[in-house]
Amino acid sequence: MAALLSYSSLPQLHRAACACLMAVVLSACSSDHSSSPSTVPAAAVERGAQIYATSCIACHQADGHGVAKVYPSLAASAVVTGDAGALARWVIKGQRPAGMPAGRFAAAMPQYGWLKDDDAAALLTHLRSGFGNQAAPVTRSDIAQALVPR
Ligand code: HEC
């Protein structure tokens, strides 16, 4: 293949390569400006915030801090920021994560088995990136995988 290239075509190739590189650099720059701090998709966070406001806020409160001795705080919660699968199984199935002892709170939390996978992903992404938390987003396939019976 290289033997077919005449010397006269090389400067053109070089220019094309430069343009290509510039495009990569520019697109990297522009995506940096448009996205939030990590790689959390804005639409998911917004959808998650909506679900939080309708289903969770009554107990865990607008600031996620809960109510002392009654409802736990979701800010700096090891359950929220830890293993995404364990978090999903708690919220969706009421399956208690290891390291979250029973009996700390008198009230019980409802289960949210009716959440669709992508809504659950959006909700958990909101919890993990809101209230000062900084854990990785949760995808729909993370949820599907977490709920596979084992
Ligand atoms: C009726 C009140 C109530 C509602 C509504 C509620 N929770 Fe809870 N939540 C609780 C209680 C009580 C606990 C503690 C349960 C326990 O330890 O047995 C809890 C615990 C949690 C925990 C574990 C926190 C930790 O660090 O221990 C998470 C995460 C959580 N809830 C998320 C949610 C999400 C997400 C929603 C909405 C989809 C929600 N909760 C709705 C009462 C509620």
Walk me through the structure.
By secondary structure, this protein is mainly alpha-helical. The protein has one domain: Cytochrome c-like domain (Cytochrome Bc1 Complex, Chain D, domain 2, Orthogonal Bundle), CATH 1.10.760.10. α6 crosses α7. The longest helix has 25 residues. The radius of gyration is 23 Å and the shape is globular. The structure holds heme C. The site of heme C (HEC) has 24 residues, from α3, α4, α5 and α6. The site of heme C has 24 residues, from α3, α4, α5 and α6.
Number of strands: 0
Query: Multimeric state of these chains?
Result: single chain
How many helices? The count is 7
Task: Report the structural category.
Answer: mainly alpha
- Looking at the overall shape, the CATH architecture is Orthogonal Bundle
Can you tell me the overall shape? globular
Q: Please name the fourth-level CATH homologous superfamily.
A: Cytochrome c-like domain
Number of domains: 1
Q: Taking all residues together, what is the mean pLDDT?
A: 82
Tell me which ligands are bound. Answer: heme C
Distance between the termini: 54 Å
